[in-house]
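Quick one: structure tokens for this chain, please?
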Amino acid sequence: MLRPMKRMILVVITLFLSANILAAEIELLHASEWSVPKKASTILAIPPIKNSMRKLQRNVNSFLKLKYPGGDEGTLWANELRSWLIALGLSSKRIELAPGSAISTTIELEVLTN
């Protein structure tokens, strides 16, 4: 009697963890998308930013992790993006910068929950 219950609990936990992994989609912001003239409407129209902002609005306990390419250029780009997001109303406390994007011309945007 106890073994089937343990299996059921294990299955439920596995499904829950799988759902969370799938829900944590990473949006990719390519340098070519970012090279547009900067104003609020054009930035909010960039699909990875638009999608990430929508996800952030759905959950007040979520935050945005920006994984950017290393080096001076990547750091400048990440800080410029961060500044724009703050100017557009996202609290700086909800933004985390992390070096190490897998692609040198891409910033990874990931909405995570505390």
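DSSP finds five helices and four strands in the chain.
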